[in-house]
Amino acid sequence: MHADDTTEWWKDGIVYQVYPRSFQDTTGTGIGDLDGIRARLPHLVALGVDAVWISPIYPSPMKDAGYDITDYRGIEPLFGSLESFARLAEAIHAQGMKLLLDLVPSHSSDQHPWFLESRASRDNPRRDWYVWRDAGPDGGPPSNWIAEFGGAAWEWDDATGQYYLHLYLTEQPALNWRNPELRAAIYDAMRTWFDRGVDGFRVDAVEHLAPDAQGRDNPPVPDWRFEMGPARSLDRRYSAHQPDGFDVVREMRRVADAYPERVLLGEAYGTLDEVMRYYGEALDGFHLPFNFHLIEAPWDPVGLADFIDTYEAALPPGAWPNWVLGNHDRDRVATRWGPQAARCAAMLLLTLRGTPTLWQGDELGMVNETVPPEMLQDPWAVNNPGTGLGRDPVRIPMPWDDGPGRGFTTGTPWLPLSSVASAEAQAEDPGSMLVLYRHLVHLRRNHAALRRGSYARLHADASVLAYAREHDGETLRVALNFSDREVPLPCEGTPLFSTIAARDLKDVTQLLPNEGLILTP
Length: 521
Ligand code: GLC
Prior knowledge:
Distance between the termini: 27 Å
Shape: globular
Helix content: 25-40%
Strand content: 15-25%
Bound molecules: alpha-D-glucopyranose
Oligomer: single chain
Number of helices: 16
Largest sheet: 8 strands, parallel
């Protein structure tokens, strides 16, 4: 840890997202597990990251790859046990790293005992732990809300004659955050993990906490396009980012604040204003509401420069920024922006002001892979055949070596294997993406200007973005060439590091095609 102030390790640190199903299998099931994460910690140590966020590892029927939970305090047997979790937590802490888990508060599995009770009868004490409504006046669903994976967000329950809300799959009923007992139950689960040594949570799908109590209809979006996903055909005015949801976030923060140095990262897709609200007016919400702009934006220097300025200006006083290039839900950066741009994008992510989150495999330049129809796993893909929707192509297992199963599994992998060079091969290749990431992480760790420095735009045009980071008398300049032509260096300075491994750093006046440079004045 390099924090100037150790209670705020999350400002200096780099977060790495592990997708447990695809990291390392040690049991031959073709699905990764907790012992596998432990076995591969040397990879994370060599990379130099500070915190590991693990996507859900709780008991789950796996209808949505673990984001459908049946026990908020347990471990899914496929992944291991509380004992293997304790061994993993100990090993992570022994390396001086932090451990973050995924908290999924907006919905449970329909197989969770809470929901089984809730749907058992209208007068069950847990009825109100989920969102139940009578049919609308026409006998249909109570509102026009659409689930994120398509179809109506309301499911009719014949036995009790009401609809329940699910903003994702029908198997993911929405928890009712207006019920104090439900809130207390989730907070207890948080405390259980804090007591087990977890350093924080990435909190899932928070935009959907406490949707409009009256269940008002969402208005249509006139310029909706299919790729935006089914739920975005409506303006989610009443189903997402509701006032009561922000109150819940503040309450969660109080639970975390009862423990030292815990951190909450929030997943909310929304406008910049909506995302900023999750910091809380008194910075009493999430420490870091994810900033997904780099995932959603085109690779365009002026557009990005403008966004960085807008984002910096929109931050509430004292709020700490953060940046994300990819995750288990979105196309890989090397596919979105292309393999050349991905090298500059790595430099961008690791030199901007704010905590970076790395998505597993981006450090290997992993790309979206084609997944044949018979291997599709993601319900979003399975339920929308032939549409190209779905997230399996970005969840491909890590290619550790060139042996059978790419070192990921001795069994049949749950998704096809990757086409990119292995971690083992890349570690030996100075021109590889892995070596580039290691250098960039190292530079960030060694330069307070990159970790803590101010940000100032130096230049942006159709090809180039350049900015300065300054802290305590140290200034570093970053110049990124987004084009595949040579361009004049947009700022002065002595080159310190290039994304092009074999680059001669003497007498540099031009940026090479797709090159990123770090310079000292
Ligand atoms: C979040 C997760 C995604 C999941 C959804 C429902 O967006 O990142 O993977 O499907 O929530 O839990």
